[in-house]
Design goal:
This protein has 249 residues and is α/β, with parallel strands linked by helices. The chain contains 11 helices and 11 strands. The chain has a 7-stranded mixed sheet. Keywords: Methyltransferase, Transferase.
């Protein structure tokens, strides 16, 4: 992966030191910005991680970018009801999100009062999103608390599940990358080239059944065959391009 780390245009000793610390954690090279444009920095590289005083911004060669912002989660929290929250019910549950990504689902579940652990297999995505969850400051104290409460783990989902004892979580949640691109989900464009595209499998299903005490919930494109193939109850959502599936334990 040809990615380097540098600072924003307002480079200073403090920012550069922060960039070097991040570089050591991610095992990625760090270069001084020297007022170079983003276009020049990207020449011959897959991406550039820009370090700001209070955020991280990943620029990709294809023009997309990735940074943490809980905007999607905020909209869902403000709505009168959320389909995923409705599926979980009103009791506080211990939830394992096996596909963290930008953590929108994890934030929504945490805000609804659930104890959420989120797994992300890509170290770069895990770091950017985890830092955002720890440091992003919104105007809502309940949202801030929901983000801070999420425990994040950098690991492959299947490998992590295999290490867990039986009945470790009430809910195991899976949101694999959709089989078809949804135009309305352009906020995911910066994530796609780094996302784990491993499809849901029978082995993964058996591990989720072993680990979950109450339910396994999956989110997938409405045309995906994962619902019927693995025995999920397919919950139709009219006028929505993604649906949920549930297996009761």
């Amino acid at each position: 992966m040809s990615i380097v780390i540098t600072t924003s245009l307002r480079e200073n000793a403090k920012l550069l030191a922060k960039a070097k610390t991040i570089g050591e954690k991610l095992n990625l090279p760090v270069i001084e910005r020297n007022k170079q444009s983003a276009k020049k920095l990207l020449q011959g590289r897959e991406g550039v991680l820009l370090v700001y005083e209070n955020k991280l911004r990943l620029l990709n060669q294809d023009g997309s970018e990735l940074s943490f912002h809980p905007d999607t989660a905020m909209l869902r929290i403000k709505s009168s009801h959320d389909a995923l929250v409705d599926l979980l019910g009103t009791d506080s549950l211990k939830v394992l999100d096996t596909t963290m990504g930008l953590a929108s689902d994890s934030i929504v579940m945490s805000h609804a009062g659930h104890d959420v652990t989120a797994i992300e297999s890509n170290p770069l995505i895990h770091f950017i999103v985890s830092e955002g969850l720890k440091n992003y400051q919104s105007n809502s104290e309940s949202l801030n608390q929901a983000m801070r409460s999420i425990k994040t783990i950098c690991a492959e989902s299947l490998a992590y599940l295999k290490k867990l004892p039986n009945d470790s979580f009430d809910i195991v949640y899976c949101d694999p990358m959709f089989s078809e691109r949804i135009e309305e989900s352009k906020n995911l464009d910066g994530l796609r080239q780094y996302a784990n595209v491993t499809a849901f499998s029978e082995e993964l299903l058996q591990e989720t059944k072993r680990v979950a005490r109450k339910k396994i919930i999956i989110k997938a494109h409405f045309r995906d065959d994962v619902f019927e193939k693995y025995g999920f109850e397919h919950l139709i959502r009219k006028n929505q391009k993604f649906h949920y599936g549930v297996i009761e334990i």
